[in-house]
From TrEMBL:
It comes from the Bacteria. Residues 221-319 form the HTH araC/xylS-type domain. This is Helix-turn-helix domain-containing protein. PROSITE patterns: HTH_ARAC_FAMILY_2.
Amino acid sequence: MRIAILALEGMFDTGLTTVLDALTTANTLAQWTGITTPGFDITLMGVRPQVRTALGLQVPVCDIADTPVPDWVVVPALADIVPERLLPTLVRDDVVDALDVLRRWHGAGAHLAAACTGTFVLAESGLLAGCEATTTWWLTPVFRQRYPDVCLDAHRIVVPSGVMVTAGAALSHLDLALWLIRNNSPELAALVAKYLVFDSRLSQSGYVISDHLIHSDPLIERFDRWVRERLDTTLAIDSIAEALGTSKRTLSRRLDGVLGKTPVEYIQDLRIERAIHLLKTSKYSVDQIAGQVGYAEGVTLRTLLRRRLGKGIRELRPRE
């Protein structure tokens, strides 16, 4: 499998090295253990002759013009993690040239992958239009506003969609690399995960700090505050809208526009957030925690955590 890693100036160092380390570890373990796999031919590609990471390390890139079309192109994250810095970077000359390369390689049959803020580069090319995707959780509102034609599911860590695959925030680069390895050999991917001491994760919801997402809309900010103060009660959307001086329809539309969620889904997020906090910081039983986040029975909370995070109570509660 020929994999080209598209190296852009100012990329996230850990994103680049995580993908490289995972794939080269897969090659080493396959040879050592005798696992039958085609292996990974990895090339670092650049649209400029010299590329440096965000921490100033020079990346030994090859010229794209001299390289055959790869099977997969991986776009690691840019280190610009706030919108004020990321959005101007997307129109930088080298990034614009990289978009042309992505379109050309895609037209020639290459599959495309990106993680964290690299998903913005992929979306900027227009190739994600109509596809499902994920992105880094704290930039979800910006992604939705900039790319409304992408079906964003920011809960999931890895989202394959046709010939595209995207991954969530920061260390989701490793989830992405393991997904690529798993497509080649599930046995090898499991072995690489063990050697890298890595537990699989299905969702980035457990890492989301909802306060970071709500400040772009005053109504959503008030909705968030109102719900947090009453999480241990039964909440009706009509009553919440009335208390906030708006309509259920307007509240739903504003939440969908910024966060891509219904009011019920957002309330569930807040219940999960508080439940996880209590699981990690208190000795309360599951039934007691369920009551504090608005559920009558612990089994309801268990089911929701398993469905949304892919984890059970034992995995979330710290070991003593």
